[in-house]
# Entry
Amino acid sequence: MNSPFEPLNDDEVLYVSVGRVLMSNPTFKVVEFLDALAQAISDREEAWSEENEGWFGDGLECEALRFSSQGWQRGRVRIRLEFCPEEPRPKLLDSRRLSEARRVDSPSVSTPLEKPFQAERRYDDIFGEEDY
# Structure
């Protein structure tokens, strides 16, 4: 089964308005969040060393007992952020494409934008005849 989540690149930017952790600003780069997480962990862990930085970089050597394989599998592990986009919103047709679609659907009906400009009333219809 494929996950709808996609890994984010370090330089991609997030805006998180509710439920923020570690970040005081609602807008931040992924790498800034990972650095803040690494700092928070290193502040709590007495045995933190440079090799622990692998959690946030190229990964740490490890073994995993995975459902998809038989037995332990050697590899690397790291911490990343992932993003799951919402369903895309339908794009609005631009006015030219909308106008063309109307002409194709009902060629006998014209819209005000398709008619040439015509004055609906003359000056003297509105204000009456001028007295000279």
Remarks:
- The helical segments are 30-44, 95-105, 123-127.
- The radius of gyration is 31 Å.
- The longest strand covers residues 60-65.
